[in-house]
Amino acid sequence: MIRQTFTGLVLLLGVPLLCAQEEAVEEAVDVARTADWCREAAAAGDAAAQYELARCYFTGSGVAVSQKKALEWLRKSAEQGYAEAQCNLAECYADGVGVDKNAYEAAVWWVKAAKQNHPEAQYRLGVAHLRGEGVVQSDMLGLAWLRRTAAQNHTEALYHLGFCHLKGTGGEPNPAEAVSLFRRASEQGHAQACYWYAVCLQEGTGVQKNPTQAVEYLLRSADGLCDAAAFRLALCYERGWGVAPDAAAAFDWCWRAAEAGMPEARFRLGAWLEEGFGCKANTEKALKWYKKAADAGHREAQNRLNILNEKKPAKAEE
After folding, report:
1. In whole angstroms, how far apart are CA 161 and each of 109, 139, 156, 175, 303?
2. pLDDT tens digit string along 61-102?
3. CATH architecture, domain defined by 54-152
């Protein structure tokens, strides 16, 4: 009876395993067929197929990875006016993927795609103008392209335009407009936008102060791996900004920011380890974090490091 039950169980469990294997095989066949179709259509001059074939060569979908072949097909597609290919070719030049970095060439292709209303190309062209990379530096042109892209609800454009309004790029600061843009980008999960929206809520910049809501957005930002948000959460828990003071939580958030490499977080972590805030006091560990902060140029950390080293008892002579 036990043997029959065990055999039945194996057969039962084997069904989903076989199904999964069959699905994997079918998926592999579909990928190969897609690559074959793309190759045939691309050779016949179809710009969309040429772009898809380039992607296949970049990722190894149904074909062997080959940046050289990927760029050949990407360029053919771009030269036929396919906006997606033009934008991707621009990114290759901007990042040096398969070609030497060339900001001018990147801008040439971004312009072509941007004129076809390609959101990502418009955003990248706007940033290029703000920085003067491959094109003339112009706050006016940069902001114009960012506004055009933000109007299409492009997440990065919303955030970048918000930051420009916050800092007054190309004119007077407009905190209220910055807050509005940060909030819209935050709703799309942009970690940096969540951080700056939280900062505005904490400080009452362009919006009414709301420390509790600020913490909510800091948590969202930290979930998106924003190190600055983790450190600011440490300060919130230390000082009771929008949350009940919690030394242990403050220490944990500070540790995360320090591990990520933030000099100020490393200095504060050293100070908290030295005094035993949210943890058991440990001078040796404090020295370690002071040194890491000092190596990154943090002056207070270097001063504290010097003081603690002077206090160390001299080693007895052998």
Report:
1. 22, 11, 8, 11, 39
2. 888 999 999 999 999 999 999 999 999 999 999 999 999 999
3. Alpha Horseshoe (1.25)
